[in-house]
Specification:
This protein has 246 residues and is of the alpha/beta class. The chain has a single domain, classed as Alpha/Beta hydrolase fold, catalytic domain (Rossmann fold, 3-Layer(aba) Sandwich). It is 42% helix and 17% strand. α3 links the parallel β4 and β5.
């Protein structure tokens, strides 16, 4: 799988993994604030942005293997990983498959739980609708849930519209089948940052607080008046939170 990526800055290697159904540009306002602290690697996940489209179903393990392959190609053995929403699921799959390569973990608007049966069913229904009608219906349904800010809504709506049917469908099915990752928490001995908007309409902040309660070293950063996109809605606070991973 050929991944498109950008790289900037110097310091601790830090992979910023975007969420669904977006691409690496969601981090644009945060990267200048982090580039003096981190060697930033920002991939487009398979099927999104400028990366190659999948030719069939993928799993979270496949997404994680893509990240491992990218790090290999850059000669980076160990890195901190930050994942937004679905990107958090990818980061957790990386933790499961390559634990010795992780030096820090950031979960931004994400969670460790698997889908409920109802959630899983909903993802497959959306995938079928995308196959029939295209990505616009996802843009229509998701945009108001991602942020209440009209400026950000306009940006992310256009971003979602640019994604491919194949990428969106593959990601939906991978999220539906992802494993519960609660079992990974006890083995985490490195810094963990939990960044969550208090007004998140997609993943309740209580999911992050539950992880905080399980990890003595976890740092919780609850951001007021922010929804599912802290890196766009409050880039300064998000960047300061992620610096604990340096």
């Amino acid at each position: 799988m050929e991944l498109a990526y950008t790289r900037q800055g110097q310091g601790t290697p830090l992979v910023l993994i975007h969420g669904y159904p977006l691409d690496h540009t969601i981090w644009d306002e945060v990267t200048p604030l982090l580039s003096r602290t981190f060697d930033l690697i920002l991939p487009d996940l398979r099927g999104f942005g400028a990366s190659a489209s999948p030719d069939g179903p993928a799993t979270m393990a496949d997404f994680a293997a893509d990240i491992a392959g990218l790090l290999d190609s850059l000669g980076i053995q160990q890195a901190a990983l930050v994942g937004h929403s679905m990107g958090g699921y990818v980061a957790l799959a990386f933790v499961r498959a390559y634990p010795m390569r992780v030096r820090g973990l950031g979960l931004v608007s994400s969670q460790v739980l698997a889908d409920t049966p109802e959630g899983k069913e909903g993802r497959y229904k959306t995938a079928a609708n995308v196959a029939e009608k295209g990505v616009s219906l996802v843009a229509e349904a998701m945009t108001p849930k991602l942020s209440a800010d009209p400026r950000i809504q306009a940006i992310v709506r256009a971003l979602i519209e640019k994604q491919t049917r194949a990428g969106v469908i593959s990601a939906l099915k991978a999220m539906a089948e992802r494993a519960d990752c609660t079992d990974l928490l006890p083995a985490m001995k490195y810094p963990v940052a939990l960044v969550h908007g208090e007004a998140d309409a997609l993943i309740p902040i209580e999911r992050a607080r539950a992880v905080e309660a399980s990890l003595p070293q976890a740092r919780m950063f609850a951001i007021k008046n922010v929804g599912h996109l802290p890196m766009m809605e409050s880039p300064q606070e998000t960047a300061e939170a992620l610096k604990v991973l340096a």
